[in-house]
Write a structure and sequence with these properties.
It is built from eleven helices and 15 strands. It is an alpha/beta fold. A hairpin with a 2-residue loop joins strand 10 and strand 11. The longest helix has 13 residues. Bound molecules: magnesium ion. The site of magnesium ion has 8 residues, from loops.
């Protein structure tokens, strides 16, 4: 299948944000038109992010600054995917959360009890916790050491998160600290694992053949697509250089200069589910 035909055959686009739709505070010129065209041609898109420190409301506000109208329904954060995963595999369990207040609200809004009473905890959830303190690390270590069978879930494997001045430790780094103390490794939900894409397909009712993951990182975005058995599309508008691409063991199904190539292919080509 040629590039255009492949892009036209996709009805469900999972989109990375930074490096794909915008770069930092700079919106790409094609982004608004692309999102509009997805809708006009009967295609569904979801913004996928590994960041579990922000709630969807925070992202809705961020996109609104670019003049993009989005609702909570347009997003899947690793926090949401984790909540969906917990609903499915650990329904009704009492949770200990190492995560932000907004993640806590997300879990509570889905009916989970989040507790600091360690005797009640049935599952430990680790997020990108920008409100982390040492007591939480002690609590998590105590829980995991006290019960080797206790389910332990992490939202995302990223070691660092980019900021204006460089990087700060992300969820994966804290999980390494916990591993050093307890020998326990979490089940990880976010990219490059397949779960976010799989949960999205299940939730919105699309097949693997109808779904693509689009992003600017091979080792997280594209790889999560490959791991989920869907089309993995790399855009060269962000982090990946031709050199990184040439040396990567993971090969995208498609490499695009930027996501405007999707716009060019789908414009005037409706998708029928
Ligand atoms: Mg990106």
């Amino acid at each position: 299948m040629n590039k255009e035909k492949l892009l036209q055959s996709i009805g469900f686009y999972l989109l990375d944000m930074d490096g794909t739709l915008y770069l930092g505070d700079q919106l790409y010129p094609f982004t608004k038109e692309l999102l509009k065209t997805f809708r006009e041609t009967g295609r569904k898109y979801l913004f996928l992010t590994n960041n579990s420190s922000k709630s969807t409301e925070d992202y809705v506000k961020k996109l609104a600054k670019f003049g993009i109208t989005a609702t909570a329904e347009d997003f899947q954060t690793s926090a949401q995917a984790t909540a969906f995963y917990l609903q499915k595999y650990h329904p009704g369990k009492c949770l200990y959360l190492c995560g932000t207040e907004s993640f806590k609200k997300e879990l509570e809004s889905q009916g989970f009890e989040v507790t600091q009473d360690l005797s009640k905890v049935q599952c430990v959830v680790m997020g990108y916790d920008t409100e982390l303190n040492y007591q939480k690390l002690i609590d998590v270590s105590k829980l995991l050491l006290g019960n080797p069978e206790l389910p332990y879930i992490a939202t995302n494997p990223d070691l660092v998160c980019p900021t204006e001045f460089g990087s700060v430790p992300d969820c994966g780094s804290v999980c390494q600290m916990i591993f050093n103390a307890t020998g326990r490794k979490p089940e990880v939900i976010g990219k490059p694992g397949p779960l976010m894409a799989q949960l999205a397909m299940e939730k919105w009712g699309y097949t693997k053949e109808q779904t693509a993951m689009v992003g600017d990182r091979i080792y997280t975005d594209v790889k999560s697509g490959l791991n989920a058995g869907i089309t993995g599309i790399l855009v060269m508008s962000g982090e990946t250089t031709p050199e990184i691409l040439a040396n990567s063991p993971d090969k995208p199904h498609l490499v695009l200069q930027d996501a405007s190539e999707i716009l060019g292919a789908i414009r005037g080509n409706p998708f029928h589910k």
